[in-house]
Fold this sequence. Notes:
binds zinc ion, 8 strands, TIM Barrel
Amino acid sequence: MTSYQLAPSILSASFSHLADEIKTVMDAGVRVIHVDVMDGHFVPNITIGPVVVRSVRDLVHGAGGVLDVHLMIENPERFIDAFAAAGSDWINVHAEACTHLNAVLAQIRAAGCKAGVTLNPATPLATIQEVTGDIDYALMMTVNPGFSGQEFIASVLPKVRRARTLLPPQVGLQVDGGVGPDTIEAALDTGANLFVAGSAVFGEPDPAQAARALMAAMEARQKGE
Length: 225
Ligand code: DX5
Ligand code: ZN
């Protein structure tokens, strides 16, 4: 989980051409596809369910990729098994949505998936202090979840930096929200290695080129340039 990976969010893709959109970015070198699941309760929007994960699983897995499922839902424990069965590889839940976070993370792993925990911009890092040994990655939101295309909240960056020092080295660190050409360098400066981008990839006229440009910035960082 500690290699640099761009995770384009299909929330910004055209759902009438979803397979083509995914194929386009995977042909450009993307290996992580981010799926934003919203329930209209935890966040003020409704999006994708397990049926969509199931419909793209063969395409993504066949190209050597993984499905990174971001559950922005209340009571995520009710849906983890369905998302795992549908073909999810990584599943992350919001700490704010879990009364029994330790149990939910164990449920994700028991379902055969990598487990992640996510924090909203205003949630203190200490919220995940006691579960750092129970996760494969942590996600720090740099927007308030609910919609793509929002402005990057730069005041979250010091928390992301502190997260890197809190987390064991093998645990991945992901940033989600408002990541694009103007913010990727600041996001990379934190030590994060997984970057979600929705509108900055699928909202661009040439998503393959947009993905390649963001991956080039990550590659340069990996080489220490
Ligand atoms: C926000 C979602 C994000 C979002 C990213 O609620 O979790 O993954 O789709 O979109 P951009 O990159 O446009 O902020
Ligand atoms: Zn997301």
